[in-house]
Amino acid sequence: MAQHSLERLNVILIGSGNVATNIGIALQDAEAEITQVYSQDVANAKILARTLAKKSKASKPKVLTNLSKIDKRPSLIIIAVKDSAIEGIVKQLNVNDGIVVHTSGNVSLDVLKKFNQYGVLYPLQTFSKGRITDFSNVPMCIEGSDVSTLQSLMTVAESLSDCVYNLNSKQRAGAHLAAVFANNFTNHIYAVAEKLLNEQKLPFDLIRPLIDETAVKVMDISPAAAQTGPAIRKDNNVMKSHLVNLKKHPELKKMYALFSAEILKTAKKKIK
Amino acid sequence: MAQHSLERLNVILIGSGNVATNIGIALQDAEAEITQVYSQDVANAKILARTLAKKSKASKPKVLTNLSKIDKRPSLIIIAVKDSAIEGIVKQLNVNDGIVVHTSGNVSLDVLKKFNQYGVLYPLQTFSKGRITDFSNVPMCIEGSDVSTLQSLMTVAESLSDCVYNLNSKQRAGAHLAAVFANNFTNHIYAVAEKLLNEQKLPFDLIRPLIDETAVKVMDISPAAAQTGPAIRKDNNVMKSHLVNLKKHPELKKMYALFSAEILKTAKKKIK
Questions:
Q1: Which CATH architecture is the domain A173-271 placed in?
Q2: Do B163 and A106 touch (CB under 8 A)?
Q3: What pLDDT digit, counting tens, does each position of B87-109 carry?
Q4: Coil vs helix vs strand at B10
Q5: What is the three-class DSSP state of B200?
Q6: How far is CA B162 from CA A88, A103, B255, in A?
């Protein structure tokens, strides 16, 4: 569990979505003080300020309605908005003190270069507002404009999480891409499985234990070592009958063929 | 937890792989007696017999070297071999008593029709010999040649697991296909993510918490509701930059484009 305290850290949160909400709660838990909250959607900013006030003994963060009214002496300004909105926020934001960071996996550090000290705090996890995330095992990917900034961000990240990684922008983009596969595409596969079950009037419950076990397996071993199924066994009869069963779904046939070919290629490499 | 006892159930196991090993252990835990074990690979049959003997107070199962020497009065004969080997086993197997079942997700019930009583016990889970599976939450998909056989198999399945489903052969094939997506293809996606991370000299540990959370989310909610990411947000800039990052991997670009298009299609359906 992360152990350091962020007492005396004065944080301004820009954004009111899943990341802003979860990182705000985690920072407060580490005893940082969220002094101001800004969102293009004022109603959402108010909800976030109330949520943070409820979870803390500290005073309620002020809701900013205009970025020109920002506290000029913050320790840390966190821009946790969608990627396409970061540049617009940067344009409106005029501060000389403190460190300005964004939380994006895919946006370069350079977008923040007009500030004196800047960096990235990218929590590599999927967040929901309704589900408070325990940050202690969320990988925090950090980047800083200079050594002193990086050290400060390291302190912040280590106060939140036991897994802190110092990544440059290119590595972060690679990690984000891997995350899109491991999260978005995996979840879509679950949705495909649900659709195939529903066609047979079967509940999704039938494969929930399998989904759980598939994920649990790779907590210890490499997925390359965990691969099973007809493709890696080169069981052509089973694969053929699966493709017949998918005849109503040309896009799923394409997906099936692509995956099977790729899994088979991996198997061949192993044999060599 | 499954509660019934299978005392007095006399079981012959044909096969010595991951399914045979795990179902054998689970049956013994439910107090069934495994009397004989057969495998085309005698050495493997011996290992399984020893494993079962170690885990039980009952006497060590006999290793059969020839299927003609099978006990003619078993209660249950379980054929747990790879799909393509089932027919060959059926040809060699001459018994009049007891119930003969296979454990395949993809093979029709009819392959067993030469026997008097026959059925299917398909445990919908991924198994390894080195990892003993708790059967109590393994979905057991059963099918029987007649009502009385189905009832007997229901008793066996309910002794092993709390989740028993009565599926016909077509439904079982649908469930197996869904399982290939949810397990084999999902695991391959994990392997792709590992490859992308390794290219950036990053450890797989970086996305293990994300993989865990992605699977945990759909334990309660539908994957259709859990979908996030650039595709469902229609964030074209992020998707374009991801495709640029994949330029060295034409097959992964294809996979990325296919998934993004499918996720987007789902999003459009939601809006309608």
A1: Orthogonal Bundle (1.10)
A2: no
A3: 999 999 999 899 999 999 999 99
A4: strand
A5: coil
A6: 55, 44, 37
- The structural domains of chain B, with segments of one domain joined by +, span 10-167, 173-271
pLDDT tens-digit profile of A80-130? 999 999 999 999 999 989 999 999 999 999 999 999 999 999 999 999 888
Q: In this structure, what token pair is assigned to residue A94?
A: 């005029």
Is A123 in contact with A140 (CB distance < 8 Å)?
yes
Measured CA distances, B201 to A113, A167, B196, B198, B247 (Å) = 26, 10, 9, 5, 18
The Cβ of residue B199 has, within 10 Å, a number of other Cβ atoms equal to 15
Nearest alpha-carbon partner for A101 in A42, A177, A14, A25: A14
B67-71 mean pLDDT: 90
Task: Compute the CA torsion angle A41, A62, A127, A88 (nearest 10 deg).
Answer: 50
Chain B: residue whose CA lies nearest to A168: B200
DSSP state, residue A184: I
Instruction: State the pLDDT confidence band at B74, using cuts at 50, 70 and 90.
Output: confident
Nearest CA in chain A to B105: A238
How far is A60 from chain B, CA to nearest CA, in Å? 30
**Distance to chain A for B80, nearest Cα, Å:** 15
Mutate to test the interface with A, among B190, B216, B270 (most CBs of A within 10 A): B190
ipTM given for this complex: 0.94
Rounded distance between C-alpha atoms, residue B246 and residue A91, angstroms: 31
Low-confidence stretches of chain A (pLDDT beneath 70): 1-3, 270-272
| Structure tokens, A256 | 């099936």
Residues β-bridged to residue A33: A10
* Pairwise CB contact (< 8 Å): A196 & B219: no
Distance from CA of A179 to the nearest CA of B (A): 7
CATH superfamily of B10-167: NAD(P)-binding Rossmann-like Domain (3.40.50.720)
